[in-house]
Amino acid sequence: MLLPQIPVTISKDKVFLYLGINDQGKVNSEMLEQIQQVIQAGRVLLSPTGILNQVPLRFHEKSIFISHDIKLRMKNSFLKNCTTASVVAVTVGETIDKEVAKLFEKGEATSGIILDAVGTVAVEEAADQVVRMLSQQMRLKGLFATPRLGPGYQGMPIECLPEVLYLAGGGKIKITTNEYYQMIPAKSLCFILGWSSQPSKYHKKCDFCHKTDCQYRS
Length: 218
Fold this sequence. Notes:
Layout: E1 2-3, H1 12-18, H2 29-43, E2 49-60, E3 63-66, E4 70-73, E5 84-91, H3 95-105, H4 109-139, E6 144-145, H5 161-168, E7 176-177, E8 183-184, E9 188-196
Antiparallel strand pairs: 1-2, 2-3, 2-5, 3-4, 5-9, 6-9, 7-8
Helix pairs in contact: 1-4, 2-4, 3-4
Protein name: Vitamin B12 dependent methionine synthase, activation region
GO molecular function, one term: methionine synthase activity
């Protein structure tokens, strides 16, 4: 399923979060104005799109097979109660990547860092929007979503990225990955949602991460 236009909202608070600013009250008015201006400029650089496929899950001994291509160990996996999954890829496009690079080339590093944070917030919001849309549809079938599980998350090696991206159909929206498992465009995400007849005890990807002191924890 192609999702050509995903609505996203850029939260200023989340931009601050990705900038590592925990106390906005300590930021001077000049910097606050610059951040706001970059957020406004960044909105027109975004082209949020996505693609997804439904795939079966197969269980054998202590492993989970996702559409015959991806093998995961079942231990501690919240997919073990699922019968099917959605494999999703989203991106906000390459334009924002190029603008970030231009800003750094011109010596405008601060604006470049802010714009990079805007892109991160945008692609995370695009992913969340897809999850919300799918959750509403699948609830009509009596199914509940697991948190997003992506390559590099706990329980899924980063080496799975090319296979997950292929299953999602990422190439159709011009998402690729290089030999270092970096996604191109950089502001892209690829993940799996499991669907179960029982609600998951986890609700967000951070729920099953033990790093409770992470500044990006939601």
